[in-house]
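quick q for whoever's on today - can somebody do inverse folding on this one?? i tried earlier but teh output was garbage lol. tokens:
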């Protein structure tokens, strides 16, 4: 670095000379390409355009102050002067700032490439122009005119396509400018084959988009860093301003990408934005340099620079374009002076061995060179090709700025890393000291507590106040012991010495244990500790550590809650269980919510007991060990809520086989997969459904029950169990509570939606001994619980008891059904006898026929045993026909009946359909004016059999329809319908459905599940 100081001036001057040499080499006036325009002509006779496009630079014919066309040149002779393109034909000096005018450029091109589609790539040659190939206008930009009134400016780079059919063609360009201080063709056109020109356009666009994307990405990155920093960095701010200016300048210069996005944008607006970037770009660089070398750069110079920029901004905003564009040279010269001053400051920084001073000097030198070239260009001393080095110098400045900011961040990160390493070392020393001290305190502390408790228990001569004081001493000792344990646990957590003993844990039992152990801490406070956790929720964790987590949270709530409630609750979120400990205490300030989980951190509350500051930190780390998260929400009005998440219980190999008081004798049954329904011992009378998601548990239950006379339907898939319930007649279901897809509780709920307590008893097996778990199961419809561990004899006894209970209940129901059946028969018998008696006098023959039908009816009726629950559907249909024969004679053919029987061969309860037909006749058709019709349909659909009896009678009102089957209906005499409804509910779980409205008839629907047709209960 000393050598750098010694030769700093030499290095700086050498770099400036090198940069200037490169600049003039890049922007030299003469084109090195041998194919150039000479004397208004470009000879391409010996050049194949397939070799590449040609830049139309050189000596064009210029007809100043004339707007000529192809016909003008053919018909007249005009005096031309030669003018270099790119360039201006009206030189501008500081004493003559007016540089606008109009004229015509002409170029004759000779070529052998005929009958080809050619293209011209045009940048912004002038503020307005009209381009003609021979006599054809192929492109326009703005409106060309001889005066300002008819003139209109526009910036629109474009690609021109034309078909060349001759060996010679003229390119004629009319230009006019009343906006800038330069009139002429500012940029050269490029001639080539159409595809070549399009490729140039694509390349230019891709380059601009790449540059824009790079700058935009860098800008967004640094903006994000700027707003994320607690203390905003001015260096980064000025870099953001520089990047933004560069981004805007790319859009508003060069290929004028902004015109592609907004085609109607005005030249005046483009010019203003372009000049504002010229003003504020150097200002942002000056501010950036000031933040680097505040002790060297004069603050006054920065204020003058910003003041000058503000003044120029006001001028550009207020004045018309043609005014301020005449003073661009003044702008350039001022900023040349600014950068010269910055180089001087950087030279002094180099002498003081300041970081980045050399880099900044190189960048500022390139900017000065670019500004000098721009001044010479505007003075028409040189012509700059493709924008010169200005874009490159600006880009180099931005690159240097980005590098400087990145280096500063890297250095800051390195400093922080070193400080963090040292802090970690010091923190470890502190933790080791606390752990060692706590370990040494623990043994004598336990001895002290034990001695005091012994004195309390055996101190017969102690006064009450003495015992009370000693009791407080024990409580204080236990609090100190808890603190010691927390410190030791905290040390173990930091050293990763705690290993979790993971298993499935019932969350409710953990919560109850914590509540019972923490209630004494409330002393005489008016605080209620409650729990709202579903007994079936289990988590996968270390039971002891879960108790520790909840203990710390509840203990924290007790400290800051004078009165009110502390509530423990949880909800399941996919594979997670979210636990909440909520209190009604004083709350936590919002700005402290993140700090409370840090070690030794305490939130001060007035008149509050301060804790050790370790409990919440330990809870957080224990939750993290379980793979969960912990956070807090608080409101000073409603208290605090602490949340943490745990993994829901996992599928693990059950230990059920080890939980029997006497091990069952295992049969030679191979352990197999029970994902599908398995049926064992198919011909036995009583059927037991066994559902457990653990195959080992299922195998044990199978081994126990295989010695009994039961048919077993087993599965470990609760969804398959639902199918089994729908498909098979089951006498008893044995369900494990904890299952993955559908829990035992939910499966019991599904069973009870179809079957009552005696139709399908449910025995639930659980490892939980809490009363709440059993109460919840009983509410859902469980008949009995069996708690692990249990013996095989106990299991068999409970199953036998439930089956006997079911059998007895069904016998009672059958007797009641028989009584209800007896209620139905007298109705019809009474009516039939009346009809026969009435016909004996008027039509004996008809009476004889009816007597035969009535005899057939009675014979079929008496065939129905009251203990027989089902009869063939065919018998029921014949029964109805016998009944209808009597009713049709009785009412003189007022009744017509149609049978649409599409499905037979199944069994139904007796005397189900005849009362429905009787109801249609009595309450529907007979109350109707005219004849009536009854339709009886039987069909099968979607694994169900539908029996429909409908009439076209007077119908039933809506109010009566809602109560006709209800036991609360004491007015209606519909004994038969209620009887049928109860019997259908008993046998099928689905009652009678009635659809009716006034004057639209009545429709009775019986729905029979296919899986239980033809079976007896």
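ok took a stab at it. sequence:
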């Amino acid at each position: 670095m000393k050598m750098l100081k010694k030769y700093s001036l030499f290095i700086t001057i050498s770099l400036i000379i090198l940069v200037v040499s490169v600049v003039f080499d890049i922007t030299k006036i003469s084109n090195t390409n041998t194919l150039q325009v000479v004397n208004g002509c470009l000879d391409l006779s010996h050049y194949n355009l397939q070799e590449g496009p040609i830049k139309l630079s050189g000596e064009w014919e210029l007809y100043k102050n004339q707007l000529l066309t192809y016909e003008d040149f053919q018909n007249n002779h005009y005096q031309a002067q030669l003018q270099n393109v790119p360039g201006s034909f009206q030189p501008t000096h500081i004493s003559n700032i007016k540089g606008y005018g109009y004229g015509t450029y002409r170029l004759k091109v000779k070529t052998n490439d005929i009958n080809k589609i050619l293209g011209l790539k045009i940048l912004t040659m002038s503020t307005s122009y009209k381009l003609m190939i021979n006599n054809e206008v192929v492109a326009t930009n703005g409106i060309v005119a001889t005066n300002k009134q008819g003139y209109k400016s526009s910036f629109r780079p474009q690609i021109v396509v034309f078909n060349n059919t001759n060996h010679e063609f003229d390119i004629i360009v009319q230009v006019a400018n009343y906006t800038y201080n330069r009139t002429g063709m500012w940029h050269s056109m490029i001639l080539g084959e159409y595809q070549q020109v399009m490729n140039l356009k694509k390349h230019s666009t891709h380059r601009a988009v790449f540059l824009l994307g790079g700058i935009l990405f860098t800008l967004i990155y640094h903006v994000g860093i700027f707003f994320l920093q607690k203390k905003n960095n001015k260096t980064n701010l000025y870099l953001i301003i520089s990047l933004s200016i560069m981004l805007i300048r790319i859009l508003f210069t060069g290929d004028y990408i902004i015109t592609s996005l907004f085609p109607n944008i005005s030249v005046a607006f483009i010019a203003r934005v372009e000049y504002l970037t010229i003003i504020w770009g150097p200002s942002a660089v000056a501010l950036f340099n000031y933040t680097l070398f505040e002790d060297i750069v004069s603050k006054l110079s920065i204020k003058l620079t910003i003041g000058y920029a503000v003044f120029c901004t006001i001028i550009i905003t207020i004045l018309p374009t043609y005014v301020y564009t005449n003073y661009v040279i003044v702008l350039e010269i001022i900023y040349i002076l600014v950068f010269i001053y910055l180089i001087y400051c950087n030279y002094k920084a180099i002498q003081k061995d300041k970081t980045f001073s050399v880099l900044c000097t190189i960048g500022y030198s390139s900017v000065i060179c670019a500004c000098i070239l721009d001044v010479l260009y505007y003075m028409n001393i040189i012509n700059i090709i493709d924008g010169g080095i200005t874009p490159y110098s600006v880009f180099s400045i931005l690159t240097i700025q980005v590098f400087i900011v990145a280096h500063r961040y890297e250095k800051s990160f390195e400093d922080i890393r070193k400080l963090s390493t040292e802090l970690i070392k010091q923190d470890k020393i502190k933790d080791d000291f606390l752990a060692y001290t706590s370990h040494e305190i623990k043994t004598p502390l336990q001895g002290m507590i034990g001695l005091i408790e012994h004195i309390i228990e055996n101190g017969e001569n102690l006064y009450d106040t003495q015992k009370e004081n000693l009791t407080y001493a024990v409580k204080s000792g236990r609090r100190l012991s808890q603190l010691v344990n927390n410190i030791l646990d905290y040390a173990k957590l930091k050293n990763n010495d705690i290993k979790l003993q993971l298993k499935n844990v019932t969350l409710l039992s953990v919560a109850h244990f914590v509540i019972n152990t923490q209630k004494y801490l409330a002393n005489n406070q008016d605080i209620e500790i409650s729990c709202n956790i579903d007994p079936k929720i289990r988590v996968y964790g270390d039971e002891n550590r879960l108790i520790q987590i909840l203990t710390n949270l509840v203990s924290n709530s007790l400290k800051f809650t004078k009165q009110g409630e502390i509530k423990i609750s949880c909800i399941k979120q996919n594979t997670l269980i979210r636990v909440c400990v909520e209190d009604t205490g004083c709350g936590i300030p919002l700005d402290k919510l993140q700090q409370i989980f840090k070690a030794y951190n305490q939130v001060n509350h007035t008149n509050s007991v301060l804790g050790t500051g370790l409990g919440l930190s330990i809870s957080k780390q224990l939750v993290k060990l379980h793979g969960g998260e912990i956070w807090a929400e608080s409101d000073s009005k409603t208290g605090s809520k602490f949340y943490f998440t745990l993994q829901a219980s996992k599928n693990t190999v059950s230990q059920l086989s080890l939980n029997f008081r006497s091990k069952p004798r295992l049969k030679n049954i191979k352990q197999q997969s029970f994902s599908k329904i398995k049926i064992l011992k198919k011909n036995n009378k009583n059927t037991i459904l066994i559902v457990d998601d653990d195959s080992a548990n299922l195998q044990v239950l199978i081994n126990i029950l295989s010695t009994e006379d039961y048919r077993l339907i087993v599965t470990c898939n609760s969804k398959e169990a639902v199918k089994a319930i729908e498909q098979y007649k089951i006498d008893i279901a044995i369900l494990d509570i904890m299952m993955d897809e559908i829990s035992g509780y939910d499966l019991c709920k599904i069973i009870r939606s179809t079957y009552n307590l005696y139709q399908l008893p449910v025995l639930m097996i659980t490892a939980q001994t809490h009363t709440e778990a059993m109460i919840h199961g009983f509410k859902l419809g469980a008949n009995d619980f069996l708690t692990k561990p249990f013996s095989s004899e106990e299991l068999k006894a409970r199953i036998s008891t439930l089956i006997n209970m079911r059998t007895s209940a069904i016998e009672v129901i059958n007797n009641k059904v028989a009584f209800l059946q007896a209620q139905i028969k007298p109705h019809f018998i009474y009516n039939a006898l009346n009809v026969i008696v009435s016909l004996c006098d008027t039509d004996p023959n008809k009476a004889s026929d009816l007597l035969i039908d009535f005899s057939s009816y009675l014979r079929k009726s008496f065939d129905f045993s009251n203990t027989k629950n089902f009869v063939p559907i065919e018998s029921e249909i014949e029964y109805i026909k016998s009944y209808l024969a009597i009713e049709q004679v009785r009412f003189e053919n007022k009744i017509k009946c149609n049978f649409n029987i599409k499905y037979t061969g199944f069994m139904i309860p007796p005397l189900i359909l005849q009362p429905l037909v009787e109801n249609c006749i009595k309450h529907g058709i007979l109350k109707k004016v005219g004849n009536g019709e009854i339709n009886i349909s039987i069909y099968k659909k979607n694994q169900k059999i539908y029996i429909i009896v409908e009439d076209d009678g007077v119908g039933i009102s809506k109010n009566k329809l809602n109560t006709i089957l209800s036991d609360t209906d004491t007015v209606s005499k519909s004994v038969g319908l209620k009887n049928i409804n109860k019997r259908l509910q008993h046998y099928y779980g689905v009652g009678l459905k009635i659809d009716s409205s006034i004057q639209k008839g009545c429709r009775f629907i019986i729905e029979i599940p296919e899986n239980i047709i033809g079976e007896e209960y």
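fwiw The mean pLDDT is 76. also The radius of gyration is 50 Å. so keep that in mind when u check it
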